[in-house]
Design brief:
The protein has about 200 residues and is mainly α. The protein has a domain at about 25-110: Monooxygenase (Up-down Bundle). It is built from 7 helices and no strands. The protein has helices at about 1-10, 15-30, 35-45, 55-75, 75-115, 120-130, 140-200. Helix 2 packs across helix 7 (about 140-200) and helix 3 runs parallel beside helix 5. Keywords: Membrane, Transmembrane, Transmembrane helix. InterPro entries: LAAT-1 (IPR051415), PQ-loop_rpt (IPR006603). It is a multi-pass membrane protein.
């Protein structure tokens, strides 16, 4: 707070004006990067199952009306540019969701058709192999039970290892998200400083 007060004094601003500018700039940066994590996550997963297209459509309609209102009211060019950016980002997210939904549905339909065609031929060796496991020399059942115990132990070790790796990945995701939030706040504050020094931003009376 003391550093912000000194910065405001050097710029001939009150602390309230400086805080208002910084918070407004951080809010602007957050809105600009709002859809970027979702776009990246959809690309990494190759799916958009958790997103409602109806929600995105309503959001896009709101951004369109915001752009029309900004143009008709003759607002400053930065507001109009941001409204255009929001519409573009909404269209990009909607296009990504439609693409992944259609491609995944087509892939699932092809996989179901292939499994339906080759289902009978694939089941026969499995059934015969399952029946042959119970037939063997004396003592084979003891060996099979020992092997099953070993498989159970190794499976338990793999489960515990997978749990540890899952917890570590969750911690990494949390840390990455926290760093992203801090970077957005820093970018917003830096944007306010640049806008103030260049004369783009001035406190309104």
């Amino acid at each position: 707070m003391a550093g912000l007060t000194a910065l405001a004094d050097s710029f001939h601003l009150t602390p309230h004006e400086a805080l208002s500018g910084v918070f407004g700039s951080i809010s602007l940066a957050a809105w600009i990067f709002l859809l970027v994590p979702q776009l990246v996550e959809n690309y990494k997963q190759g799916s958009a199952e958790g997103i409602s297209l109806a929600f995105l459509t309503v959001w896009f309609i709101g951004d369109i009306t915001n752009l029309v209102g900004a143009v008709w009211a003759g607002l400053v060019p930065t507001v109009i540019a941001l409204a255009v950016y929001f519409c573009f980002a909404d269209l990009l997210l909607i296009a990504q969701c439609v693409y992944y939904n259609v491609s995944n549905a087509r892939r699932a339909r092809k996989a179901s058709e292939l499994s339906a065609q080759s289902g009978s031929s694939e089941e026969e060796p499995l059934l015969s192999r399952r029946g042959s496991e119970n037939i063997g020399l004396p003592g084979s059942r003891r060996r099979s039970s020992a092997a099953s115990r070993r498989r159970t132990l190794s499976g338990g070790r793999r489960d515990s290892l997978s749990k540890i790796l899952e917890e570590e990945s969750k911690n990494r995701v949390w840390l990455r998200n926290a760093i992203s939030v801090v970077l957005i706040c820093c970018a917003g504050a830096a944007g306010w400083v640049i806008a103030w020094k260049s004369g783009v931003w001035r406190p309104a009376p």
